[in-house]
Amino acid sequence: MIRVAPGSRALRSIGTSAGNWIRTSGYTRKWLVLGVVIGIVAGLGAVVFYVALSEATQLLIVGIGGYHPPTAAGDGGAVGSREFTRPWAIPLVVCLGGLVSGIIVFTLAPEAEGHGTDAAIEAVHRDPRMIRVRVVLVKLVASAITIGSGGSGGREGPTAQISAGFGSLLARRLDLSPRDGRIAVAIGIGSGIGAIFGAPLGGAVLCCTIPYKEDFDFEVLVPALVTSIVSYTVFGSFLGFGPLFGYAAQDYMFDIPVQLVWFALIGVLGGLIGLLYSGTFYTAVDLTHRLPGSRIVKPAVGGLLVGLMALVLPEVLGSGYGWIQQSMGRGDLTAIPLWVVLLLPFAKILATSLSIGSGGSGGIFGPGMVIGAFTGAAVWRLLEPIAPGVPDNPAPFVIVGMMACFGSIARAPLAVMLMVAEMTGSVGVLVPGMIAVGLAYLIVRRSGKTIYRAQRENRAEARLAPG
């Protein structure tokens, strides 16, 4: 006979009582309570991951590797450098980070492999109770090590999985209905991403659109607004409320019609490069799964290759947000060699595919921002000396590049537009950005591709899918 400890019985009793209270509550009371609770945990989870990643970066790529990357304004605004004090150490550190991450993931929770957002989206569609607590903890540690050692990845995937995992835990412990469980996991995804990027409105809209290629779940929107602002408030209370990239283009005003031509060009390039990003990334994923050898070792091999790339292009290391920051200033951007600006979008695609596509742990949203930013920066560098109407400051082109490239391939154009505008404090860029994002999205939509394989076509398809 198995005896249950009195403490466990008490916790179960509390969970049962809370579940009964939630299930019998009306829509408003239910989602005010659940939204606030999920928002608090999403914000705290984002804080924990941010601190873990910062410490891992200082220990690994800075301390051991001897490389000081630039940082975004919201992360301190360090200028950084393209130089290495110990270049021989860089490939070793990135390789070691991939190896340690692989050991942690494939020993403890293999489903924590990769970028994590697809796993959360799959939980929305298939089973909102499926995300294990262990996966959340493994994802947090493995991602901090992967990115902190120089692997090319973003910090949004882990935070999305942390908060989505808590929504999944509530679905189990409170015995939520399948629909309420799906809403809890969905708002967890957007609130975690919105918190760590300082973009609560964009995060709320992302909750509603990221599960689908061609749909928007309005039932999720109101709970998402509550959860997203709470998570952003919690995160900001610990780490500050300013935009991640400062107020990069706050003085920009669209008043030169010919600029639409250049923004349209960014949109076309953004859509095509977004397709290249998705295609290269999943080619790496599929090839990694087919290749013989231990799954533990493959992220280490990917890390070694990224470390070797970084000896030529250090911009591929880590999240790369500091390089986005530098691309927004005229002086900083013109100081970067032109060949680096032109090559970096493609190099970052390859580096992310090797780091995360090989089985490493980290997000793909953040690298998509770098890829899009330098697409816009490249257009500005080439056109500024010869074309009419090009702004003196590259920031509008860089910002629109981010919107167009990742907004299109993520099949979430409105959400990503809002998020990038919040991250850069640049609402005025939304006006010309619409033409770029619209064209990029049409190109990607025609191809049928997406960066998130777990997305369903629409809500009707999701209802018909197994589970």
TrEMBL record:
<protein>
    <submittedName>
        <fullName>Putative ClC chloride channel</fullName>
    </submittedName>
</protein>
<feature type="transmembrane region" description="Helical">
    <location>
        <begin position="183"/>
        <end position="212"/>
    </location>
</feature>
<dbReference type="Pfam" id="PF00654">
    <property type="entry name" value="Voltage_CLC"/>
</dbReference>
<dbReference type="GO" id="GO:0034707">
    <property type="term" value="C:chloride channel complex"/>
</dbReference>
<keyword id="KW-0868">Chloride</keyword>
<keyword id="KW-0406">Ion transport</keyword>
<dbReference type="InterPro" id="IPR001807">
    <property type="entry name" value="ClC"/>
</dbReference>
<feature type="transmembrane region" description="Helical">
    <location>
        <begin position="31"/>
        <end position="53"/>
    </location>
</feature>
<feature type="transmembrane region" description="Helical">
    <location>
        <begin position="300"/>
        <end position="324"/>
    </location>
</feature>
<keyword id="KW-0813">Transport</keyword>
<dbReference type="GO" id="GO:0005254">
    <property type="term" value="F:chloride channel activity"/>
</dbReference>
<keyword id="KW-0812">Transmembrane</keyword>
<feature type="transmembrane region" description="Helical">
    <location>
        <begin position="336"/>
        <end position="358"/>
    </location>
</feature>
<dbReference type="InterPro" id="IPR014743">
    <property type="entry name" value="Cl-channel_core"/>
</dbReference>
<keyword id="KW-0472">Membrane</keyword>
<dbReference type="InterPro" id="IPR050368">
    <property type="entry name" value="ClC-type_chloride_channel"/>
</dbReference>
<feature type="transmembrane region" description="Helical">
    <location>
        <begin position="260"/>
        <end position="280"/>
    </location>
</feature>
<feature type="transmembrane region" description="Helical">
    <location>
        <begin position="427"/>
        <end position="444"/>
    </location>
</feature>
<keyword id="KW-0869">Chloride channel</keyword>
<feature type="transmembrane region" description="Helical">
    <location>
        <begin position="364"/>
        <end position="383"/>
    </location>
</feature>
<feature type="transmembrane region" description="Helical">
    <location>
        <begin position="395"/>
        <end position="421"/>
    </location>
</feature>
<keyword id="KW-1133">Transmembrane helix</keyword>
<keyword id="KW-0407">Ion channel</keyword>
<feature type="transmembrane region" description="Helical">
    <location>
        <begin position="224"/>
        <end position="248"/>
    </location>
</feature>
<feature type="transmembrane region" description="Helical">
    <location>
        <begin position="88"/>
        <end position="109"/>
    </location>
</feature>
